[in-house]
Specification:
Layout (H helix, E strand, L loop, with lengths): L6 H11 L2 H8 L6 H8 L4 E3 L14 E3 L2 E3 L3 E3 L12 H12 L3 E3 L7 H7 L3 E5 L5 H13 L5 E4 L9 H6 L19 H5 L8 H10 L4 E6 L2 H9 L4 E4 L13 H12 L4 E5 L5 H9 L4 E4 L1 H33 L12 E3 L2
Parallel strand pairs: 4-11, 5-6, 6-7, 7-8, 8-9, 9-10, 10-11
Antiparallel strand pairs: 1-12, 2-3
């Protein structure tokens, strides 16, 4: 794995090693995959503006997110069904995140339980889907709270599943021997799993969950100033600017392009994070410059997991942290907190 020098190398090798249905599930998007591609391409539309002759000898990538100290402003985003990519699944990913000194966000649709991930230690958040069966949702929140997860990340952009044609073409199904912890079984298609998710979630529910959970609540899936303001007004402790990795509604904006709008609307009331399209450390610095507290990356460490299990995921996170440090130094910032809007501009 030492010959793999960046995320793209891991992505290419993962495509060779994964079964076609599994690769299509992780790599694919909705519809014509316009948003999927634009999430990556949009970072090329933003140019860094380095400030020179700054003493960056003591530069650090360390920061805090929701008061949690982390070694870098990149967290591991929730990705479902990770034991389809590697037998050790989310447990291996949690170990990699712990080694990298960053947060692991466990998916509701994980193939490892919150208790299994909690045993690993390290900072951890729990991503929450609201099920049609309210009892399942309450039990998941209780498991997260009892397992020492320090925040809930409520996904709000998936009342129904996006039109993901790659899964249909490959007839992708979770293997029967791979158990989805929250559901208690495998052998299901992603479409069947999503039929268990509530399509009736409203801002009233967000406020109720925020009040009852006993944990800080971030809302994931915000793409507009209007929804950013509503999140602040309904109990959110944070916002994740996200289009679900281009997997829900095709044709929406790339997340980096709407990040400034959401940050401005939040007006500093809550921390704003962003996901989607992160492939390089320089991408992370651009997001910081546009107001993100940190980013979440899902596919990048997943490719590492698929290639080399815990070691592969850890290596990808190490590569990204090294790239973030290099970009901070070259842009003239001594820490993530030192990056501002003067460090970025739109490509003419």
């Amino acid at each position: 794995m030492t010959e793999l020098l960046n995320v793209w190398d891991y992505e290419r090798l993962a495509a060779e090693r994964l079964e076609p249905g599994a690769h299509g599930y992780y790599a694919g998007g909705a519809g014509d995959e316009l948003t999927l591609r634009d999430n990556v391409e949009a970072y090329r539309r933003w140019l860094l503006r380095p400030r020179l002759l700054v003493d960056v000898d003591g530069c650090t990538t360390a920061t805090t997110v929701l008061g949690q100290e982390v070694a870098m402003p990149l967290l591991v985003a929730p990705v479902a069904f990770q034991r389809v990519a590697h037998p050790d699944g989310e447990v291996a990913m949690a170990r990699a995140a712990r080694a990298a000194g960053t947060v692991m966000c466990l998916s509701t649709l994980a193939t490892s339980s919150p208790a299994e991930v909690a045993e690993v230690g390290g900072p951890r958040w729990f991503q929450l889907y609201v099920f049609r069966d309210e009892g399942v949702t309450r039990e998941l929140i209780a498991q997260a709270r009892d397992g020492g997860f320090t925040a809930l990340v409520l996904t709000i952009d998936a009342p129904v599943r996006g039109n993901r044609e790659r899964d249909a073409r490959t007839a992708f199904t979770i293997p029967p021997d791979v158990r989805i912890a929250s559901i208690g079984r495998g052998g299901l298609t992603p479409e069947r799993v999503f039929q268990m998710i509530s399509a009736s979630l409203t801002w009233h529910d967000v406020e109720r969950i925020a009040g009852e959970a006993g944990l800080p609540l971030l809302v994931k899936g915000v793409l507009t100033a209007e929804d950013a303001r509503l999140a602040c007004e309904h109990g959110a402790a944070g916002i994740v600017v996200s289009n679900h990795g281009g997997r829900q509604l095709d044709g929406v904006a790339a997340t980096i392009d709407v990040l400034p709008e959401v940050v401005d609307a939040a007006e500093g009331r809550v921390e704003v994070l962003v996901d989607g399209g992160i492939r390089r450390g320089a991408d992370v610095v651009k997001a910081l410059a546009l107001g993100a507290r940190a980013v979440l990356a899902g596919r990048a460490p997943l490719w590492g997991l698929a290639v080399g299990g815990e070691d592969g995921a850890r290596r990808v996170l190490e590569l990204l942290r090294s790239e973030i440090l290099n970009a901070l130094q070259l842009v003239g910032a001594v820490s993530p907190a030192g990056v501002g809007r003067s460090h970025v501009g739109r490509k003419p």
